[in-house]
Specification:
By secondary structure, the protein is an all-beta fold.
Length: 507
Amino acid sequence: MASCSAQEWHSPIIRHASHSAFPSTTRGTAAVAVDSYGNTYLAGTADGNDLTATPGAFQPKYPGGACFGGAPGAVPFSIPCQSPFVVKLDPFGAVVFATYLGGSSGATPSAIAFDSQGNVYLAGTAQGDFPVTAGAAFPTPPPPGNISSFVAKLNPSGTKLEFATFIPATIQAIAVDSAGNTYFAGADTHAVPFPATASAFQKTPPNSTENAVAGVLNATGTALRYGTYLSGSQGLSNAVGIAVDSAGNALIGGSTTASDFPATAGQYVAGANGNLFLAELNTDGSGLIYSHLLGPAVAGGMKVSANGDVYLVGYAAVSAWPSASAPFGGRPEPGGYHDFLFHLNSANSMSISAIDLPFVLSAVPGALDVDSSGNAYLLAYGTVTTTTGSFQPAPLNDGARQILVAKVRPTGSVAGATYAGLSAINSVTVIASEPDGSVRSGGVSMVTGYAATNFFPAITLENAASYAANIAVPGAIVAIQGLWHGAFDRRGVFTHQLALRRPGLFR
């Protein structure tokens, strides 16, 4: 495999240890984003009232409520409903704000974003009494027993809900333009028809099972600027990523099993579990600028860098990508299936490169992020050949699966690979990169025991450049922050941070 220099990955020292704002009842971090100042935005779910909300928080208390769980056909049992929380951390890991954001009927976040003013945007699934605001584009909750999505906007201090609205869809990704319009992508739910607009590219659902959808909310959340289906009639389609350019065109990535998916280039591959698609909608959603079928795979996530590089992660048959590179090690048997990293140097291109990954990506789409230079960061579990100077060169000797982080250059070579200090009872789920190449991740770890199931709130791999400028090389992982509690003890929530510094400069 390709090696990396010691300037890209460094060895750790203890930086600080402190208590956390995260509740021990946290069910997991579902989304994370990092701004250019090094602030981290985390969204997750909790089912208890021990989040340390900050003074003046929009929703300082867990909204409560009883939901029902149980296997299909079994007698249902009552459990506390999950409620989203939003936490903003400064570059040093201190809590800027922490607030709940939900109703008593339960909700789950799926995506988080921010704008240049520091407003925070959240999307996810919800039902019942989610706190929609006056004048919301879609104030009505889904029918009882069904779920819909929500989009919400919090002010920079987390003290005010600027808007919140239901969206009749299952939203997996959001993006925000310079005017504060919120772009979203996902799939329809069929519980309530998706509100495609009059001038939409596809006004009616092409099939009755699952269709990809995309749309744009205005800056106040009071109206849908456009909403459109994006699918074919002969199979399923789902969108997993969205990005917006300076002109307001929306780039959407996903996968489809519809042989008649509206493509302007590429060819549908029959018999595959899915075909990757990448489509760009014009500014009012009335037409396609292009739509490409890229090859057989089931898409898990999509990210676009500032320089226009497009990355997708997905699951595919090894035999479908015979020319894929394997910079992390040997390829599996031809009849097997694997996770892949796909890369296009520009969005409107049919030239796609594939990297075969010998490890399993964490829950996508949160397993991928990119920096402004087009480096890709992957969060996974399994085994990897670590690179020189890595944070954790060897796995923990506990017989469990291992969490790992890898960095891939735009050329497809490996810039770094390291184990992330946790073993496999820890299922880390999301990763984010600062524009300069700093890396953060958030996730959930779970331990099941005799009498209880306890959840580990979050893992954050932080970065150096915001407070170690000109000392840590951009792209270095310079801190790892974790939060957890003991297997049967809800009291022991704490935080530790390891700073990974350039050797020789902090003796």
